Amino acid sequence: xxxxxxxxxxxxxxxxxxxxxxxxxxxxxxxxxxxxxxxxxxxxxxxxxxxxxxxxxxxxxxxxxxxxxxxxxxxxxxxxxxxxxxxxxxxxxxxxxxxxxxxxxxxxxxxxxxxxxxxxxxxxxxxxxxxxxxxxxxxxxxxxxxxxxxxxxxxxxxx
Amino acid sequence: xxxxxxxxxxxxxxxxxxxxxxxxxxxxxxxxxxxxxxxxxxxxxxxxxxxxxxxxxxxxxxxxxxxxxxxxxxxxxxxxxxxxxxxxxxxxxxxxxxxxxxxxxxxxxxxxxxxxxxxxxxxxxxxxxxxxxxxxxxxxxxxxxxxxxxxxxxxxxxxxxxxxxxxxxxxxxxxxxxxxxxxxxxxxxxxxxxxxxxxxxxxxxxxxxxxxxxxxxxxxxxxxxxxxxxxxxxxxxxxxxxxxxxxxxxxxxxxxxxxxxxxxxxxxxxxxxxxxxxxxxxxxxxxxxxxxxxxxxxxxxxxxxxxxxxxxxxxxxxxxxxxxxxxxxxxxxxxxxxxxxxxxxxxxxxxxxxxxxxxxxxxxxxxxxxxxxxxxxxxxxxxxxxxxxxxxxxxxxxxxxxxxxxxxxxxxxxxxxxxxxxxxxxxxxxxxxxx
Lengths: 159, 435
Fold this sequence. Notes:
- The complex is a heterodimer of chains A (159) and B (435).
- By secondary structure, chain A is α/β, with parallel strands linked by helices.
- Chain A has a single domain (6-144), classed as Rossmann fold (3-Layer(aba) Sandwich), CATH 3.40.50.
- Helix content of chain A is 39%, strand content 16%.
- In chain A, the strands form 2 sheets. A 5-stranded parallel β-sheet of chain A has the order 2-1-5-6-7, sandwiched between helices. A two-stranded antiparallel sheet of chain A has the order 3-4.
- The longest helix of chain A has 12 residues, at 31-42.
- Chain B folds into 2 domains: 36-288, Aspartate Aminotransferase, domain 2 (3-Layer(aba) Sandwich), CATH 3.40.640.10; 291-434, Aspartate Aminotransferase, domain 1, CATH 3.90.1150.10.
- In chain B, helix 5 (114-126) links the parallel strand 2 and strand 3.
- In chain B, strands 1-7-6-5-4-2-3 form a 7-stranded mixed β-sheet, sandwiched between helices.
- Chain B is of the alpha/beta class and 435 residues long.
- Chain B contains 17 helices and 12 strands.
- The chains are: A alpha/beta (159), B alpha/beta (435).
- Chains A and B meet through helix 1, helix 2 and helix 7 of A and helix 1, helix 2, helix 3, strand 1 and helix 11 of B.
């Protein structure tokens, strides 16, 4: 199912525990490092780098492939994808094989074939969104940046 | 969040950005008069400074009370987010400096507030940013003025003071065809009367000092962005190449649709320093809550006053876009269906002398250089707000010596008209004596 509304994205984040991040980089100026570091320091999601060229990022062990991750850690709740759009279908096949429940394509990772493959395999799909931004939309961080979260409530602790 | 309901304008005016306080349960927005905020740990501090996490650091860059104002205004304008500033002029400056640098070019309407003309033609010029001023109604001239190094097209929804209404969709189409963002100053309309982003604008700027505050008490400004302009397409390298102002960060790559607002805040606001006081932001939130209640009354009074003046022999002309004979009526019907605002101009027969006698005879209308107060205001632009402009610039901006500008407030309309009638009589006597 392709998740297009904030409520659907919030529900996905709320029911998820583990995130396997494809293309996570230890380079501190790369967007993937920003997202990795945000998720790691927030601590709500258990984030793991999937990158065959590194051993770890900030003390978190990296796995060379989704296959290797799943063999040891089980199926990830979310596979978060920082790759070129043309590589997305292959990543999607690996995510399906690893039993992932959802696949999250970061900004600019837009590939119709990958979206279709994931959707048909029953995965929840988020496209052209940032998992850091969407997490922050619901935990109050985005609001502190003056951003329009779209959340209206008269309840306390609702975000 | 029960579901994905799209809430109405009045509901958003009251609730967007201002949920009950998570710490205390306070229902009103808490006023955080604190210059700085403690870190949880050294790692948390490092993450904050590196922009890898969100949070409060220092009120020059952001503050929770200010953020509430920003989110509420962004919601009302239909934008991705907002950045509050010390004033409308600083909102404009930060907008331009977020997309342009020395050697770059902007195209601006010739019908702008005099202070904006000066900011662009003098201060930005000294910084190496050139501005071409073009009549915004002449779409071909606007198209012709866009150059390879043009970084923004800047117009006012309702021109100050001449009242011309911008063809926002037409201008957006021309700007976008050239890869240029359309920046609209929406101060006179407010998001209640017009939401430029809905018509294709990319960035909206405000002097919140005016109708948003609504009571003539605080200075403030704001920038709202749509989040849909392709900043990474190659024309705006300040956003899409590594920034030396932020350890090689590429804002488009890292922040996606948030690139413009992030750079505007963490580099430009940080370095320009024109931040708003949390006290002012708090007052502006109170103003926004009642915007949709106040604006219809401002508009109703403005219409009554415009119609009164329109029928008077002492008045040479009235420039209010809602009047039947206004050349802007079609544009107003499209972009300002709830009314053409509450600031407009008219010309007195008898020119400059009649204008002086008129203003001095008024009892209720306050003679001062501001608009958008709950109280009715009056000014003679040629001798005040626009006095630094050359005659050529004055005429290009639609200002003539006999022009009087009104900002119609929330008093009883018949009292406002009573006062105008007395002053018109005084203006006639003054010119008769001289004749």
